[in-house]
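Per your request, structure below.
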């Protein structure tokens, strides 16, 4: 394996930004996606991650996009990997492919449970089981996991959710990336609880720039994140004006990132939505901070 481990990378920078991208659903969209993702790589993020479809056409594309960017653009890559719909053999074959393609960073996830999912046997019930499988397959993989500042929607309490994060870290997760949030105060309070629980691994806050009103509705539905009053006002006033909303959304995300840097978080993960223009605007806004 050849890519540098995420923890070593972010340690080398005072402040850094990484980007998440996603593969196309169908092969005919591959060219457009690769072009957008390469433009995002040109913004020189500290690393990039490629999402993984929980079952469906996109799984194979995750690795090919990660390899393309790592080889052609020299940006270290992380591949997401979900397990709920896979058996042991499928996971092992994905791990072998990741190793062959020089990808040593994995975001180990359970994945969302598809509607009507009734398998005869579940091989991996939670992300922790995937972490154990990866460790047994090759302990040299650098493994990240997800955490939820506003609590995972299936968890009964935040304490219970945090205890499962603790178990994942004890099983070998090297770092965590947070679900998106729009209120930094709720993230800081969550971080206090993670540290109180004894979870000491690096946590990369996840920031989603919201650049149109439609995206906001979809995002809130998928993530379950709360929308603070301050952002609601922006949507009310600028939501119907696409250019103004885009500018306001980028400013809001930039403001969140600067506040995170100022409060001791050194590496922020930006959900790019495969949009190079938005990525560029954010990097431009931070140019003197990241230099
Ligand atoms: P888990 O850690 O298994 O947790 C799921 C739930 O089970 C939580 O409520 C937790 O408290 C509970 N739990 C955990 N362990 C145990 C246990 N041992 N016993 C009982 N309960 C337990 N989805 C995709 O399909 N593809 C992607 O590429 C993708 N990327 C993501 C990236 C980030 C940064 C984030 C935050 C999410 C991503 N997701 C992705 C969504 C993710 O798959 C879902 O949020 C999923 O519902 C949970 O995944 P997890 O790895 O957090 O699961």
């Amino acid at each position: 394996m050849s890519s540098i481990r995420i923890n070593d990378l972010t340690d080398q920078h005072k402040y850094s930004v990484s980007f998440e991208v996603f593969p196309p659903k169908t092969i005919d969209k591959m060219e457009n996606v690769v072009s957008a993702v390469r433009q995002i790589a040109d913004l020189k993020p500290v690393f990039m991650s490629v999402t993984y479809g929980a079952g469906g056409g996109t799984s194979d594309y995750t690795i090919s996009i990660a390899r393309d960017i790592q080889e052609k653009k020299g940006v270290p890559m992380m591949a997401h990997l979900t397990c709920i719909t896979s058996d042991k053999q499928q996971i092992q074959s994905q791990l072998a492919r990741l190793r062959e393609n020089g990808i040593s960073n994995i975001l180990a996830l359970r994945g969302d449970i598809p509607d009507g999912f009734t398998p005869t046997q579940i091989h991996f019930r939670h992300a922790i089981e995937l972490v154990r499988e990866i460790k047994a397959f090759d302990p040299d993989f650098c493994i990240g996991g997800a955490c939820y500042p506003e609590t995972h929607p299936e968890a009964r309490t935040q304490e219970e959710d945090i205890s499962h994060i603790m178990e994942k870290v004890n099983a070998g997760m090297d770092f965590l990336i947070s679900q998106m949030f729009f209120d930094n105060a709720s993230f800081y309070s969550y971080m206090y609880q993670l540290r109180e629980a004894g979870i000491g691994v690096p946590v990369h806050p996840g920031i989603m720039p919201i650049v149109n009103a439609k995206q906001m509705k979809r995002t809130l539905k998928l993530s379950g994140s709360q929308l603070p009053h301050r952002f609601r006002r922006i949507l009310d006033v600028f939501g119907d004006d696409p250019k103004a909303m885009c500018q306001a959304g980028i400013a809001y995300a930039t403001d969140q990132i600067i506040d995170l840097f100022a409060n001791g978080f050194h590496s922020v993960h930006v959900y790019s939505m495969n949009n190079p223009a938005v990525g560029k605007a954010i990097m431009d806004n931070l140019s003197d901070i990241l230099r």
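The chain has a mean pLDDT of 94.

Regards,
D.
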